[in-house]
Amino acid sequence: MAILTQEEAKKIIDKVLSYSKADEMSVGLSGSRTGNIRYARNTVSTSGETNNLSLAVTAVFGKRSGTATINEFDDASLEKTVRRAEEIAQLAPENPEYMPMLGPQKYLETKTYAESTAKINPEFRAQAAFDSIDPCKKKNLTAAGYLEDTTGFSSFGNSKGLFGYNKATSVDFSITVRTADGLGSGYAIRDVNDVAKLSTKAATEIAMQKALASSKAQALEPGKYTVILEPTAAVDLLENMMRSMDARNADEGRSFLSKRGGETRLGEKLFDERVTIYSDPTNPDIPGSPYAGGGGGRFGGGGGDGRPQEKVVWIENGVVKNMYFSRYWAEKKGVKAVPPPSGFIMAGGTQSLADLIKSTERGILVTRFWYIRAVDPQTLLYTGLTRDGTFFIENGQIKYPVKNFRFNESPVIMLNNLEAMGKPERSGGNLIPPLKIRDFTFTSLSDAV
Amino acid sequence: MMKRRDFMQLSGLGLGAMLLPASAVKGYAVTPERLMEPGADVAFKKRMADIALNTTRSKGATYADVRIGRYLNQFLFTREDRVQSITNTESYGVGIRVIANGTWGFSATSDVTPEGIARCAETAVAIAKANSKLQTEPVVLAPQKGVGEVSWKTPLTKNAFEVPVKEKIDLLMKVNGEAMKNGAGFVTSNLFFVNEQKYFASTDGSYIDQDIHRIWPTFTVTAIDKAAGKFKTRDAISSPMGMGYEYLDGLASEKISGPNGLVGYRNSYDMVEDATLAAKQAKEKLTAKSVQPGKYDLVLDPNHLGLTIHESVGHPLELDRVLGYEANYAGTSFATLDKWESKSFNYGSKLVNIVADKTQPHTLGTVGFDDEGVPCKEWDLIKDGILVNYQAIRDQASILGAKESHGCCYADSWDSVQFQRMPNVSLAPGTEKRSVMDMIKGVDKGIYIIGRGSYSIDQQRYNFQFGGQLFYEIKNGEIVNMLDDVAYQSNTQEFWNSCAQLCDQDDYRTFGSFFDGKGQPSQVSAVSHGSATTRFNGVNVINTGRKI
Predict the structure, then answer these.
(1) Is residue B454 a contact partner of residue B471, using CB atoms and an 8 Å limit?
(2) pLDDT band at B7 (very low <50, low <70, confident <90, very high)
(3) Counted domains in chain A
(4) Confidence band (pLDDT; 50, 70, 90) for B22?
(5) Which residue ranges traverse the bilayer (chain B) (predicted)?
(6) Confidence band for B31, pLDDT divided at 50, 70 and 90
(7) In sequence order, what E strands does B128-270 have?
(8) Does B186 touch chain A (CB under 8 A)?
(9) Are A333 and A325 in contact (CB under 8 A)?
(10) If we measure between CA atoms, which residue out of B121, B213, B196 comes closest to residue B160?
(11) In this predicted structure, which of B16-20, B23-27, B157-161 has the lowest mean pLDDT?
């Protein structure tokens, strides 16, 4: 029931639109089935499954809009919801930034759906947990993990003839393995659309290896170090930067992309010339939603106005090429209203992580960052800590585990201090290369394991 | 703490950088009038609850509880001279939790009918039995006597949902107008109102009806110097409260005058006044002196210290973290059981008395009973600097050798399973008479910090870094100027042992976290932290200024 076909969805949306007495009306209809299993201390703690199907109607009179939602689909309920949305709209204050709804759009085909994921059932989840817990138990290690799978669809239509439909599946898995004495901890995280590409056992083995290798860490003095960031470590800082590329904030003078005199840094070289970051919803490794705000996106929201997602180059050879816009701000500026992407791709190199380590005389391998928070939005300075396996590299080899560090660093400065990049890997819906960075700023030590 | 992924950016609502946890906006959009309508009556809810309890028992559960919940939200968002969005939501359903074969099972449904509830109860038992195959630690539940048919309601004088939307918009427009008039380049302001109507019943013989209200007014003022390419923000120094709309009365009797024209607010908030001050202060921040890094004595305002208490005391003393249940997400804790068992672990200096409670009036954590039917109470976490207790729920109490739960169980929705959440955790004020001015007079080289800023702490809660909203340099007992680029770094035990002086009860205020995140899948909860202004000696301050 929760997953409707395109035809089923369109039929309901068209019926809802036929009840409209508003100037403009849009209807969103989405459904999903989400299941999860959580374990800790080598035993399952919770598991569950949720089904959801809901419809949202937005009615507009002039520049007043109102939204009502419902999860019942008989004609009377649908019509009542339309009336309620209209009632809310008429009482709402005018929104001077309201933009008329879009007409029909062309959407790219993206491969966000995998049948194997849609077939996941409670037994599958229990087996996935067992495959992760069992090897840990055998090595006297403690596993805590979480698997969540979603199968869903989103669809929308409006009174101007716009219609969109997309089906998507996703699986997120994370595992923390700790040694019995609490002195070692390792982590692995995976996200896929197609569960056939996920082995909880293989991911757990990596976390086990890191837990054992990180035990009895030594303290190094905080300071500036050459670091190699695994994609899992690099992704959060880069995501934070990409999320800050809103054009309006830059134009208003309150962004890292604002500069002295009131201009923005669009067209300026802000990073090392090897830095190129783009988005492409059709990339087979990280297929994204074909439209903005259509779900499945890692950036959330995105306006939800049905704008098509296309390939966009955000940073090319170190130069800021694009920022994202709301439709209102784009019209005001007379430019194309490029929506924020659902995931991004940082072009990398061909080297493996091992190659990067081999070429490092003295440095730190960071496998994960934790509790990253903005310190200064002007410079995109962030603080956070290393976690679950941090290692000292000397003469091209991992020498010993080191205690966790707190860092204070900006991804903008980091991408100017780029030494080398490896082959990109999927991380949190993005493709991120392992990065070798010089002069990365660690400001204090942590005793946390 | 939450990962960014768990947040939905409400950009469809035009909120810019405002991020809300996805789970905070569950429910269906309704009219504001709907929020004033009563939900199902108690007799109906008791009948439905009994169907659930009887079904679970007949299917072999040894314990069951039922939560029939109606959750109402109203969120208002504005910027400068316009309303961005008004969201009214309602969510209604039932969650049934059981123990069968010594294992928890949970199921929820929005079908609150005898058939829907019976089906849901059967599913909960079936899930418990299925999970029991992987069970290695059977559940041991601390006893809880049934409390019969009782009710509890947040004491309030003005139900926020009964205040017309127009009055709320008028207030926010006034807030924004004053901020703009006083030098702001931009301002966003928001009002959050939450009402949880919860009916709890368990096989212990409890039938508890509760009506819980929370409020959070807040704003962000931005000052811009386009010529210099600089911007600074100042957030509201309000606190989310367990109160009605009366929190916004701005009573003079609840204000505390501080140095440099600063105003603190106890149980009544003057939003317009705070926005006016914020605009002036944000402008002042544009040219404030960049801090010289080094050791300083810190004088921390309650509206700042609350978050430090939350992160460095509240979270590490959650027993589920200590035991490893949160290892894959939030992390574990340095405050291990052996430290507690030793009865001599110096968490802080002798001045540090930290109390957990779910009873303090006007606070977010205060309710009559928790989400497993335990009457709420107060207990010590840190006594004269020594770690003496944790925060536990019924299935954890036995680990502490305790005979009863602390009453810390909470679920953020009828369809979320309840688990251990932080109660109010507060630092007791000093017993000697002392104002903020008295405290500042005794400081030779220090920084006075106000408001919630950037915060980050490691997964075992040793190393942390905190920023703030406002920083003032103290030299030889006097405030000399505003500072910028300030953050302090410390280690939890070292920090609390550097606690040197406390202001008294007259300065005591609460700080709150409205959307505190925990668990997988993530749930939110709201919690308060009270303190008076407190001094910490010799804390490491770094300079966060950079050039890009």
Answers:
(1) no
(2) very low
(3) 2
(4) low
(5) none
(6) confident
(7) 148-153, 186-202, 206-225, 230-235, 255-257, 263-265
(8) yes
(9) yes
(10) B213
(11) B16-20
Taking a contact as any Cβ pair under 8 Å apart, which residues of chain B between 511 and 540 contact chain A?
520-521, 540
Same domain, A96 and A221: no
Restricting to A residues 186-225, those with a Cβ less than 8 Å away from any Cβ of B are none
Instruction: State whether A115 and A143 are in the same domain.
Output: yes
Q: How far is A353 from chain B (nearest CA, A)?
A: 24
Q: B298 - beta bridge partners?
A: B447, B536
Contact B325 A95 (CB under 8 A): no
Instruction: Report residues of chain A scoring pLDDT below 70.
Output: 1, 293-304
B154 within 8 A of B198, measured Cβ to Cβ: no
Token digits of residue B142: 């601390």
In a domain, A220, yes or no: yes
Q: Chain B contact for A13, CB < 8 A? A: no
A103 and A192 in one domain?
yes
The residue among B458, B490, B522 with the most chain A CBs within 10 A of its CB, best to mutate, is: B458
Q: For domain B8-219, give the fold.
A: PmbA/TldD fold (3.30.2290)
Mean pLDDT across chain B, nearest whole number? 94
- Other Cβ atoms closer than 10 A to B350: 12
Chain B residues within an 8 Å CB radius of A171: none
Nearest residue in chain B measured CA to CA from A123: B130
Tokens of residue A388, six digits = 């679950």
pLDDT tens profile A248-268:
999 999 999 999 999 999 999
Using the beta-carbon criterion (under 8 Å), do A385 and B169 form an inter-chain contact? no
Which residue shows structure tokens 């302001």?
B189
Cβ separation of A406 and B136 shorter than 8 Å? no
A371 part of contact set with chain B, CB < 8 Å: yes
> Does the residue A416 lie in any domain?
yes
Q: Is residue A313 part of a domain?
A: no
Within this chain, do residues A202 and A149 fall inside the same structural domain, yes or no?
A: yes
Interface check for B545 against chain A (CB to CB < 8 A): the answer is: yes
Window A:306-345, CB contacts with B under 8 Å: 326, 340
Question: In this structure, are residues A318 and A283 in contact, taking their beta carbons and an 8 Å threshold?
Answer: no
| Mean pLDDT to the nearest integer, B299-314 | 98
Domain membership flag for residue A17: yes
Residue B12 has pLDDT above 60, yes or no: no
pLDDT bracket for residue B23 (50, 70, 90):
low
CB contact under 8 A, A383 and B454: yes
Same domain, A150 and A220: no
Overall pTM surpassing 0.80 (yes/no): yes
Question: Do residues B143 and B243 make contact, with C-beta atoms less than 8 angstroms apart?
Answer: no
Query: Which of A88, A268, A371, A449 should we substitute to test contact with B (largest number of B Cβ atoms within 10 Å)?
Result: A371
Question: What are the sequence ranges of the domains in chain B?
Answer: 8-219, 289-354+379-386+424-543
Instruction: Say yes or no: A120 and A167 in one domain.
Output: yes
Supply the pLDDT for residue B131: 83
- Indicate whether B5 pLDDT > 80: no
Distance CA B520, CA A96 (A): 40
Helix (H, G, I), strand (E, B) or coil at B290: strand
């509830």: which residue's tokens?
A: B117
Distance of alpha carbon B110 from alpha carbon B415, whole angstroms: 8
- Give yes or no: residues A222 and A81 share one domain: no
Residue-wise pLDDT tens digits, B361-415: 999 999 999 999 999 999 999 999 999 999 999 999 998 999 999 999 999 999 9
Q: Strand B255-257 relative to strand A390-394: parallel, antiparallel, unpaired?
A: unpaired
pLDDT value of residue B102 = 94
CA atoms of A194 and A119, how far apart (whole Å): 11
Residue A47: per-residue pLDDT: 85
> Per-residue pLDDT for B8 more than 70?
no
CATH number reported for the structural domain that contains residue A88 in this entry? 3.30.2290.10
